TrEMBL record, chain A:
Originating organism: Paracoccus albicereus
Domain Circularly permuted ATP-grasp type intervals: 71-447
Protein name: Circularly permuted type 2 ATP-grasp protein
Entry-linked InterPro entries: ATP-dep_Glu-Cys_Ligase-2 (IPR051680), CP_ATPgrasp_2 (IPR025841), UCP005522 (IPR016450)
Keywords: Plasmid
Keyword Disulfide bond: no
Domain of life: Bacteria
Record keyword Translocase present: no
Pfam families reported for this sequence: CP_ATPgrasp_2
Automatic annotation (TrEMBL), chain B:
Pfam family, one: Alpha-E
Name by which UniProt lists this protein: Alpha-E domain-containing protein
Top-level taxon in the UniProt lineage: Bacteria
Species name: Paracoccus albicereus
Lineage: Bacteria, Pseudomonadati, Pseudomonadota, Alphaproteobacteria, Rhodobacterales
Keyword Transmembrane on entry: no
InterPro entries xrefs: ATP-dep_Glu-Cys_Ligase-2, DUF403
Domain DUF403, residue spans: 1-314
Coiled coil: none
Keyword annotations of the record: Plasmid
Length: 471, 318
């Protein structure tokens, strides 16, 4: 299989424009300087406190995600096209959510099977008929993209609930600017540090109508044991809002309040980094200690906004994913700018047969899985691994989808011996409020192991700074 | 400010101060063992340290016999001992991590770097460690954090809560370290006024990094009365009870002004009362009534102030 190397033109020799200057930068960097800088970067990350704990993996809770100093670069026109595609998708996804919690026109029209929506675990009956401010359900969408050619981009996944990783986008940039100011002086790289302000504006723009003054926004975190806690506190800090836990909030009458040193203070917008089942024990899981009893009643009566809205998860389910291009056509009357990856759904007999016959060539994922767990990468697996997975599929076919193994693009990456191509993906963060905004950049994850296609940080993935060159 | 944030700021600095105290207690113990001693060896001195830190029972359960190595490990590294240096520092860092948004980058950096340094020491084989160096490491780290707080934090309510943590814990610690003397002397009342007695008082001053300051303030001989006066009633002494309480009252008054009459200030009233009591007491009176009794009383009244701080500010009630 051949892969698109983002550094080179299709002839594989001439360096593409956006990488020309980086090549010189790499070639003139003495190896001892490189090692020094790498150590400096790690030290900075550790001192800032960005660490990553993986559920169930044990080991050092203060583990760092490896940071690769070689940036990943997009040209302006490449980015503009991605941006249009991502924003288009974001509009369609929110239109879909508005629809399925209302009249469900798309289901009536037979474009999506009702079963997939109404029997979906992420579909919340509790919010049927509740229209959040501005009709926005998913306020922060993390779109996972991969590239397979110069102009070939595919969406792997839409994350409509609480996508994480944006703190890496911001910190990677901070650290690169601190360590290599010259790179930024000699190149015109679009900034990303307006993100926290845009996020705050977005949250304020969806305050409930009952809120008459400047809205009070908070970030709701599961707590400091959560693996993304650093990100929660980082965003709260940059936005200048309180970082609250469930125990800090309580419901009194028709509003939500936080406990402060000066008594209760009303909260208007909650950016929650907590999944639906945990936000209100009276409405969802009664055993959850993380949420706020009564929150959903206040939400339904328009006393508080919750971002993303409860129930938004139904739009990013892997089974619904296959219909996103359909949503774009149905709601927007446009052709999708970004492509979906072909997906076989194993609850269909034809698809099932095809997948089972071709397991060694396919990637099989759990419908509700995440983080690179519970998946089979056919071409990278042994016969035994494939047979074990086959048994799992046979036991519960509707739990799986399959996709062709994509020839993920590679980007130049620092490795032991110098610079070598490694596979990358991209997650930009799209904000939806009164406007739809996308900062020029995102989180590039890189599979540091040679040949590996799995970019998840829990499985040997690292991160890179992502540049968009301005005109 | 969120009540939980305020609580974490308050306990962050309390635990930092406590880590320093445990390190100082260890230092007191080591200096005391350098004295010529009775036939029983150093047993009493080490036990007195445990009594002062309030953890004698836990130690007995875990280690049994009192040995220098056992105590050093217990006071410095033992995570089962809630007041050990490592436990306290870990709790301080955890609180800091929880309220990262309320700390400046410099404060977090100082706290986190100190903690990472301590973890490195923890992994070093004990035989290679210089115990006196450990106390220095802890006091130096604690000073770095304190300095970062006082030079970079906004003078807002969070800053008051941090300084309250320091003030109350320092008062508590000074009372406890002074009390060590009581435990040391308890079985040997006949030593009072002897050369050994003087030397022990001097050790207490040193362990509070106060022996030079003492000479500047008083000159002349070290006597029990003067040392106690210096550590309890002298308003120039930075770690004295009266100074710690004065600062505590100052910060509680700051909160009272900031929050206005709508927020209860019982803690401020109680702390003022305690401060006034110290301001109107003479050192001779304290010795006549019994130093140990006096110190025990102070320790429980400080606990009461802490409870009131919780009730006033840290529960988020109306």
């Amino acid at each position: 299989m051949t892969y698109f190397n983002e550094m080179y033109d299709s002839d594989g020799k001439s360096v593409r424009e956006p990488y020309a200057m980086l090549r010189e930068w790499v070639e003139t960097m003495p190896s001892d300087l490189r090692q020094m800088k790498q150590a400096e970067a790690e030290d900075l990350f550790r001192r800032i406190g960005i660490t990553f704990a993986v559920y169930g993996e044990g080991g050092d809770p203060d583990r760092l995600i490896p940071f690769d100093m070689m940036p990943r670069v997009f040209e302006q026109n490449e980015w503009r096209r991605l941006e249009r595609g991502i924003k288009q998708r974001a509009r369609a996804l929110n239109a879909f959510l508005r629809d399925v919690y209302g009249r469900a026109e798309i289901l009536r029209a037979g474009r999506i099977p009702s079963r997939l929506v109404y029997q979906n675990e992420a579909y919340e009956k509790a919010v049927v008929g509740v229209v959040p401010p501005r009709g926005v359900y998913s306020h922060i969408i993390g779109t996972d993209l991969v590239r397979t050619g110069k102009n070939e981009f595919f969406v792997l996944e839409d994350n409509c609930r609480t996508p994480s990783g944006v703190s890496y986008m911001l910190e990677n940039r901070e650290i690169m600017m601190r360590m290599f100011p010259d790179l930024f002086r000699t190149n015109r790289i679009e900034p990303v540090d307006q993100y926290p302000n845009l996020l705050r504006r977005t949250l304020e723009s969806v305050a409930p109508s009952k809120c008459k003054d400047r809205p009070t926004c908070v970030i709701l975190t599961p707590g400091h044991f959560n693996s993304a806690y650093y990100e929660h506190s980082f965003l709260a800090n940059l936005m200048g809002v309180e970082l609250v836990e469930g125990q800090d909030l309580f419901v009194d009458g028709e509003f939500v309040y936080m406990r402060t040193t000066q008594g209760p203070k009303r909260v208007d917008v909650i950016y929650r980094r907590l999944d639906d089942p945990y936000i209100d024990p009276l409405c969802f899981r009664p055993d959850s200690m993380l949420g706020v009893p009564g929150l959903m009643d206040v939400y339904r009566s328009g006393g508080v906004s919750i971002c993303s809205a409860p129930g938004a998860g139904v739009a990013d389910d892997k089974a619904i994913y296959t219909f996103v291009p359909e949503m774009v056509r149905f709601y927007l009357g446009e052709e999708p700018i970004l492509k979906n990856v072909d997906t076989w759904t194993l609850w269909k007999d034809d698809d099932y047969k095809y997948v089972m016959d071709n397991l060694p060539d396919l990637v099989v994922k759990e419908v509700h899985g995440s983080g690179g767990y519970g998946m089979l990468v056919g071409p990278k697996s042994t016969k035994d691994e494939i047979e074990i997975f086959r048994k799992k599929i046979e036991a519960n076919p509707s739990n799986y989808i399959a996709q062709p193994t994509l020839s993920l693009s590679t980007a130049p990456t620092f490795v032991e011996e110098g610079v070598a191509p490694r596979h990358v993906d991209l997650r930009p963060f799209c904000l939806c409020g009164d406007r739809i905004e996308l900062v020029p950049g995102g989180l590039t994850r890189v599979a540091l192991r040679e040949g590996s296609l799995v970019v998840n940080s829990s499985q040997g993935g690292g991160v890179k700074d992502t540049w968009v060159l301005s005109e | 400010m969120l009540s939980r944030t305020a609580a974490n700021l308050f306990w962050m600095t309390r635990h930092l101060e406590r880590a320093e105290t445990s390190a100082r207690l260890l230092d007191v113990g080591q200096r005391i063992t350098l004295l010529p001693n009775t036939a029983e060896g150093y047993q009493n001195e080490w036990k007195s340290l445990l009594n002062a830190s309030g953890n004698a029972a836990l130690y007995a359960e875990k280690h049994g016999d009192v040995t220098e190595e056992g105590i050093s490990e217990f006071l410095f590294f033992d995570r089962d001992n809630p007041s050990s240096v490592v436990s306290s520092f870990e709790k301080a860092r955890e609180s800091g991590r929880i309220v990262r948004t309320a700390l400046t980058g410099q404060v977090w950096d100082a706290l986190n770097t100190s903690y990472q340094g301590l973890r490195k020491v923890e992994r070093t084989p004990r035989g290679q460690l210089d115990m006196a160096g450990l106390t220095d490491l802890v006091t130096r780290n604690a000073s770095t954090v304190r300095g970062a707080i006082n030079t970079t934090q906004l003078r807002n309510d969070g800053w008051h809560f941090m300084n309250l943590g320091y003030g109350i814990e320092r008062a508590d610690a000074t009372a406890r370290i002074l009390d060590v003397k009581y435990f040391v002397l308890l079985p040997h009342v006949e030593f009072i006024g002897s050369e050994l007695d003087t030397y022990q008082w001097q050790v207490i001053l040193r362990s509070l990094s106060a022996h030079r300051a003492f000479h500047w303030a008083y000159g002349g001989d070290i006597t029990a009365t003067r040392v106690a006066d210096f550590l309890i009633l002298n308003g120039e002494s930075p770690r004295s009870l009266i100074t710690s309480l004065y600062e505590t009252v100052w910060h509680l008054e700051g909160l009272g002004r900031r929050y206005g009459d709508g927020v209860p200030a019982h803690a401020r009233d109680k702390a003022r009362e305690l401060l006034e009591k110290l301001q109107t007491t003479e050192i001779d009176q304290i010795f006549d009534d019994g130093l140990h009794e006096f110190l025990s009383g102070i320790i429980s009244e400080l606990a009461e102030v802490t409870n009131l701080i919780h009730a006033d500010y840290l529960t988020g009630a109306v």
